[in-house]
Structure formats: C-alpha cells, structure tokens
Amino acid sequence: MSGGHGHSHGHAGATHRWRLQVAFALIAGFFVVELIAGLTSGSLALLSDAGHMAADVVALGAALVATRIAGRSDSTGRRTYGSFRAEVFASGLAVLLMLGVAAYIGIEAIGRIGEPASVATGPMLVVGVIGLVINIVALLLLRGGAAESLNVKGAYLEVVADTLGSVGVIAAGLLVSATGNAVWDTVIALAIAAFVAVRAVMLGREVLAVLGQHAPAGMDPEKVAAELGAVPGVRDIHDLHVWTLTSGMNVATAHLMTDEGADPHEVLDAARAVMRTTFGVEHATLQVEPESHTGCHDVTW
C-alpha cells in the first residue's frame, strides 16, 4: 500500500511571475549597456560586474522558466516527475558561466599588472550609478514575492549580490578618478571576480547535492526514521530515501513494517501526516507491510 498524490503542484512563484518578468527585462537590458560600456571604457570592474549580471540574467530566466513549466503536463508519459528540474539544470549553467567570468577577469587582471592602463572613469561612474538604481528597483520588485516563493527568493538573492557589484564599480570609478591610478580598477575587478567565484562554488554545491539526490538541507534521515518509527503500529522502518526534486519540493519514500493487527490505513495516514507537518514533505510514497511480509529481502540494492 502506498500513499502519495499527483503532480499538479501549485507554485507561489507563478503568482509573482510578473515581478520576475519586469526584473528580467531591467537586468537583461542593462547587462547589454554595461557590457558595451566596459569594453569601450577599458574598465575591468565594469566587465566583471557585467559578467556577474549575465549570470543573474540566466538565474532570472531560469526562475521564469520554472514558473512556466511547473504546471505543464507531460505529453510523452516518460517524465514521471514532470520537468521541475529544469531550474536545477539552469542553475548549473549559471555556475559554469559565473566561473568562466571569474576566470576571465582574473586572467585579464593579472595580465595588467605592471602595465600602464587607461580607464575612462566617466562612463564607469555613470553606468555604475544607473546599474545601482536598476538593481534597487529589481530588489523592490522581487522582495514582495521572496517570502512566499523559494524560486523568487533565489532571484532576489542574485540581485542583492549584483547590487554589491554596482557599488564596487562606483567605488572603483571614484578611486581611479581621485588617485589617477588605474590599479584600483584592477583591484576592484579582482574583488568582484573572487566574490562571483565564491558564489558560483556555493551554488554549484547546492546543484550537485540536488542532482546527487542527497538528503535535503536541514533534514536528518535518522530523525525522519525515528519520527516514522514512533507512529503507533509501526515496528520498523527500512528503505527510507529523502531527496530534493527542485527547490522547495522535497520527496520521500519508505517501507513501514507494522505490528500484527495494526490498521494499515491508520498507519499510512499518520505517517503521511508526520512527513507533511514535521518535515514539510507533501509527496511521500509510503509502503505499509505487515510484520510477516518478507518480500523486501529479495531486493538486491
């Protein structure tokens, strides 16, 4: 006997889709402006922040795609979990992009050491200020949905980080203008590149944890087993698996061995309630087995 439900999940992110759309348009449009300004002004700080913003565009795009496909039915019949992991794959692409940007800026910065460099501080300051304003607008848009949707929250945190990048560009422009030394542009660029690389590694670890089907962050499988084992009528727990399908969607399966005479329906309902209320797992597939059942011993892995 198993317990579960269909895949018609409702997502809070869909409610705030318009916020993601407006933020995506603002960030994507400014990315083009900043990239052109960085190339024409010779500012590594601008180029590094443009690379960081490119990763934000991917992240926002992934969030939009996730809200679009969350409720889409599978016409092939082969995607039994739907297409929810598209967000995870898009996040993996963002990681690769961010690491590439960090490596490029690092190589360029090292190549500039000891060589005279000319940086146009006027465009740096103008573009930096405009970028700061756009990021603040995007933050205000996304903040309204960040508390309700992990998808929107992820996009919100991306823009928070990019806002810091804009502050770095402004600081670089002011320092170069005040000192006449272009080395400050290189220093700020390296700082932004290091920041992007660290964030990429942290995001990459999360992506690998999901793809590797690790237990969700903050969920201890031993505690899950203990709580299920405390359900009246349950004698033993085995074949317990908990993993993350995509952000905000955790899944679990388990076999519950019951005492002789225990009502399997009551055990199933109580166990599902534990998974839902204690661990926030709405999709738990639970197999209830009487103590005399021995079929699971035939499983080879």
TrEMBL record:
- Membrane topology (UniProt): Multi-pass membrane protein
Q: Where in the cell is it found?
A: Membrane
Q: Which residues form the Cation efflux protein cytoplasmic domain?
A: 220-291
Q: Which residues form the Cation efflux protein transmembrane domain?
A: 20-211
Q: Which GO terms describe its molecular function?
A: zinc ion transmembrane transporter activity
**Principal location:** membrane
Q: Which residues cross the membrane?
A: 20-44, 50-67, 88-107, 119-142, 154-176, 182-202
What Gene Ontology terms describe where this protein resides (cellular component)? plasma membrane
What Pfam families has UniProt attached to this entry? Cation_efflux, ZT_dimer
Keywords, in A-Z order = Ion transport, Membrane, Transmembrane, Transmembrane helix, Transport
Q: What family does this chain come from, according to its entry?
A: Belongs to the cation diffusion facilitator (CDF) transporter (TC 2.A.4) family. SLC30A subfamily.
Q: What is this protein called?
A: Cation transporter
